[in-house]
Amino acid sequence: MPAKRLLFAFFFGFALLCSGTCLFAQDAKSSAGERRTARVQATYLAHLVRFTHWDQNHLPAGNDAPQIVIVGDDDGGFVESLEFLLGQGGLKIEGKQAKLIYFDRSREAEARAMIRECCQLVYVLPSSSITVREINTLTEKAVVFGSGKEFVTKEQGDVAFISSRNRVKLVVSEKYFKRTSPKLSSKLVNLKSVVEIIPNPSRVAEPG
Per residue in 156-183, pLDDT tens? Predict the structure, then answer.
C-alpha cells in the first residue's frame, strides 16, 4: 500500500501544483475553468507518457526527438499547457525530451503526413476530423489520446479525458496495458479512483 500511495502522489501531485501555480498567459477565449482543466489534462498526459514504454523500433532513429502531435482547433489552452511542461523539461519519452507539433484543422493534411512519418503520441482535439482508425492505418508507433469516454469505447482510442464534478478522470483502453509497444505500466491499474479501464472489445466478445 505505501508504494501505491507513493505512485498516486507522484502521478497526481504535480497536477494539483500545476493547476494552482502555472498561471501563465493563455487564450482569452477560454474560461478559467477550461484553462484549469487544460493544465490538469496536460499534466496527466505528461505522466502517462512517463509510465509508457516504446520499443526501440517505435522510436526515432539516432538523436532525433520523439514527437507528440496535436490535431484540431484548441480554444482551451491545452497546447500552451503542454508547451509550458515541455519548457520545464516535464515532457519526455523514454528519457528523451519530446518535440511538440500542433496542427489546427486547416493543417490536417500536414498532420497526417507527420503521423505517417514518425510520431510517438497523437492527441486528437474534439474539433479534429482525423479519426483513430485513420491514425492506426498511418502508424503503429503512437499512443492515441482524445476526449470523452466514447473516444475509447467506440472509436478505439487508447486514452480519453473526461470531466466530472470539476474533476478530470482518465478512461484507458485495456489494450494500452496489454500490447508490447507502446505499453502503459500496469502500476496505473491500481489508481481506480481516477482511472477507468475499458476491456479490449475482442476480449469482451470471447465466448464464456
Answer: 999 999 987 778 899 999 999 999 999 9
Domain harbouring 189, CATH code: 3.40.50.2300
User: How would DSSP label each residue in 20-77?
Assistant: HH------TTS-HHHHHHHHHHHHHHHHHHHTEE--GGGS-STTPPPEEEEES---SS
Q: Tell me whether residue 182 is in a domain.
A: yes
The answer to whether residue 195 sits within a structural domain is yes
Classify 17 as helix, strand or coil: helix
Query: Cα torsion for 55, 60, 65, 67, to the nearest 10°?
Result: -80
- Note if the pTM is more than 0.90: no
40-70: b or e for each residue (b if 16 or more CB lie within 10 Å)? bbbbbbbbbbbebebeeebbbeeeeebbbbb
Bridge partners of residue 87, in order along the sequence: none
Nearest partner of 31 among 83, 76, 94, 97, judged by Cα: 76
Q: Residue 105: is it exposed, middle or buried by C-beta count within 10 angstroms (0-12/13-18/19+)?
A: middle
In a domain, 205, yes or no: no
Parent domain of 99: 2-54+64-199
Q: How far apart are CA 103 and CA 110, in angstroms?
A: 7
